[in-house]
Amino acid sequence: MISLSTTTPRELFLAAARGEKTKRPPLWIMRQAGRYLPEYRALKEKYGFLGIVKTPEIGAEAALQPIRRFGFDCAIVFSDILAMAEALGFPYKFADGGGIRLERKIASVRDIENMPAPENAAEKLQYVFDNLKILRAELPDRAIFGFCASPLTLGAYMVEGASSRDFPAYANFILEEPETFKKLMEKLSAALALFAKIQSESGIDAFQIFDSHAWLAPIGRWNETSGKWSEKISEAAGERCAVALFANGMGKRLAEIADFPADIISLDSSVELDKAKALFAKANSVQGNLDPNLLSEADEKSVETEALGIMQKMSPIGGHVFNLGHGILPSAKIENVEALCQTVKNFKPIYG
Ligand code: CP3
Predict the structure, then answer these.
(1) Which residue's C-alpha comes closest to atom 43 of ligand 1?
(2) Distance 30 CA to ligand 1 centre (A)
(3) What is the 11 CA–ligand 1 centroid distance (Å)?
(4) What's the predicted TM-score (pTM) here?
(5) 72 CB less than 6 Å from ligand 1?
(6) CB of 293 shorter than 6 A to ligand 1
């Protein structure tokens, strides 16, 4: 079916999420509210990152900034995947010299057993639900995303205790302590599933599971290490909204994620989206996957050429939500983001 008559950005997104061919792909950017924007830096100067996240009106303002400036089709609630770590008793803050650090990390089975029940964790995250309700009221015609981490990805920060390039302690923990790892995944998936369900009841159109560290799953074991736990989140949110899975670093292992029950699979820049889409058994659509480095390093012409290349391949197939292959970098140039928006909005599809 070709949805040429969609009237609002929200409808355009929902049509693409159902796998339809649309007049152009809907567009949003992972981490679209953030440090590359001068207006975000001003907000952070005044309230601090956690002040923005935990004050619903200010959080909504941060989420609205990129919509006002660029007219993206989708907004995403301003929060962090580590909000759940904090709700489970592991607060986070910025480390001196960059990155993020947790006040404590998981050191024993007791730390897992002592985590609060899902209902108690959800209560502490009321600011996320309030933030979403403001966004819904402010943006009736845009698609709104809620999100959380996959259990595998959240566990990486809680065991390592900080952001890391390789998460060596966690990689070792997965291999050496399978029973404790399973206990952790049970706890995290139950808490995240309830969190996702309540977000899905707050008026959102889509829910994204950030499996940002999917690549930590041992080769051939993504499903048992990550997928089966994220499935609980997908089921909890999927009754009321579209579900997207960002499966980062899985380019060489796409067969492992092929059966995941999501409407949208979001992929990094290492894959050809059109070829990848053919592999997915359940997803109607794919999201991605312009290289975020381009927005920092390249000029406007190269951004246009690369974005056109992706859309030309995807438009005859349909079911494409335009995004980057990973979060936008603080060094991204505003004029390159503007060039990307122009290119996507002016795109003339080639239907097969
Ligand atoms: O527009 C949006 O998408 C904003 C909402 C959002 C944030 N984090 C705000 C944020 C979302 C969806 C996230 C997800 C998130 N957080 C992920 C998954 C996405 C991905 O990139 O794979 C991950 C891995 C995190 C964990 C996290 N949060 C780290 C490692 C850091 C530090 C990064 C750094 O470079 O210092 C954060 C902080 C964070 N979360 C920022 C923002 C805007 C930067 C805060 C600041 O300094 O202003």
Answers:
(1) 34
(2) 9
(3) 27
(4) 0.97
(5) no
(6) no
Q: How far is the CA of 350 from the centre of ligand 1 (A)?
A: 35
296 CB under 6 A from ligand 1?
A: no
Which tokens hold the place of 282?
A: 């359940």
Separation of CA 313 and ligand 1 centre (Å): 30
Question: Cα(270)–Cα(266) distance, rounded to whole angstroms?
Answer: 12
Tens of each residue's pLDDT in the chain, 352 residues: 555 556 899 999 999 999 999 999 999 999 999 999 999 999 999 999 999 999 999 999 999 999 999 999 999 999 999 999 999 999 999 887 789 999 999 999 999 999 999 999 999 999 999 999 999 999 999 999 999 999 999 999 999 999 999 999 999 999 999 999 999 999 999 999 999 999 999 999 999 999 999 999 999 999 999 999 999 999 999 999 999 999 999 999 999 999 999 999 999 999 999 999 999 999 999 999 999 999 999 999 999 999 999 999 999 999 999 999 999 999 999 999 999 999 999 998 876 5
Q: Whose CA is nearest to atom 32 of ligand 1?
A: 99
- Which residue's C-alpha comes closest to atom 35 of ligand 1? 99
| DSSP β-bridge partners for residue 145 | 76, 206
**Span from the CA of 278 to the centroid of ligand 1 (angstroms):** 31
Is 147 near ligand 1, meaning CB less than 6 Å away? yes
